[in-house]
Amino acid sequence: MDKKELVILCVGGDFRHGYMSSALAEHSNVYTLGVCPTGGNAVSLDCIEDMDCKADMLVLPMMKSKSRCESLDIPLPQGGEVSCHKLSGVLKKGALVTGGMLSVAQIEYFSALGFEVADYFKREELVIKNCIPTAEGALQIAMNETGITIFGSKVLIIGYGRVAKACANLFKGAGAYCAAAARKSSALAEAENAGLSAFKINDLADRVSYYDIIINTVPAMVIDESVLRNISKDGLIIDLASKPGGVDFTCAKELNRRVVHALSLPGKCAPIIAGKIIAETVMDIFHERGK
């Protein structure tokens, strides 16, 4: 199929999805419904009934919460919603349906109608590419929320996966002294090889008082009351872990510890790049079908 013959329908989402639509429209025929406008060549629809052709691919937004997206109604940022029933009616036979954090109900509905369904949020290339805007977003928060310079500050990063490594590289580059806390000995060895101080997560409570900024990337309760009590009152906790996070937020509030649960940083801090990343991932999924 020639790229210009490809018809894509993008529904819902924030500004990153607007930039995603614009990126897709550079090479495809793109229609949008309820997508934040960012310019470009996409055709904006007032309602799904205005769609004058059938789409090869439907791109849904990043769902904000699992409980909400169990519904077959897709929320639109300007208010209101559109049902999957209506969307399925404007798709070609065997079309691709993709979205972020799709619910079981959504996957089962479109699959039962014979559409191929893929969750772009689970794609490795998206996760890897999103590490940089996530790390830059964490750096921006640290600069805005502390009264100190990053240069010379003491930063502890909990976990040592892709996002943690990106944060370590960025904060080290800005002149911070960085350390990592992790569970696996292999991760600690890797952190040490990268020039970081490293210790076991079990030692957090005893060692956390030394640090000005604590960045958590572990999606499990690691910053509990025993750790919070030892964090400096001037310290800042940036939790990058997905919900419910890795911090006892209730206890942090009671102890007057500063916590920022920084979710969806690529979309908030770098929506243009975040949109392009989703567009690239969506097209990777489409081309891998071999059609």
Total count of strands: 14
Distance between the termini: 7 Å
Give start-end ranges of low-pLDDT stretches: none
Instruction: Estimate what percentage of residues fall within beta strands.
Output: 15-25%
Return the average pLDDT rounded to an integer.
Answer: 93
The helix count comes to 11
The percentage helix is 25-40%
Spatial strand arrangement across the major sheet? 3-2-1-4-7-8
Globally, the shape reads: elongated
Radius of gyration: 21 Å
Name the helix and strand elements from N-terminus to C-terminus, one letter apiece.
Answer: EHEEEEEHEHEHEHEHEHEHEHEHH
Largest sheet: 6 strands, parallel
Specify the structural class. Answer: alpha/beta
Word description of this protein:
- The protein is an alpha/beta fold and 291 residues long.
- Helices cover 36% and strands 23% of the residues.
- The strands form 3 sheets. The chain has a 6-stranded parallel β-sheet with strand order 3-2-1-4-7-8, with helices on both faces.
- Helix 4 crosses helix 5 (162-173).
- The radius of gyration is 21 Å and the shape is elongated.
- The termini are close together.
- The model has no long low-confidence stretch (mean pLDDT 93).
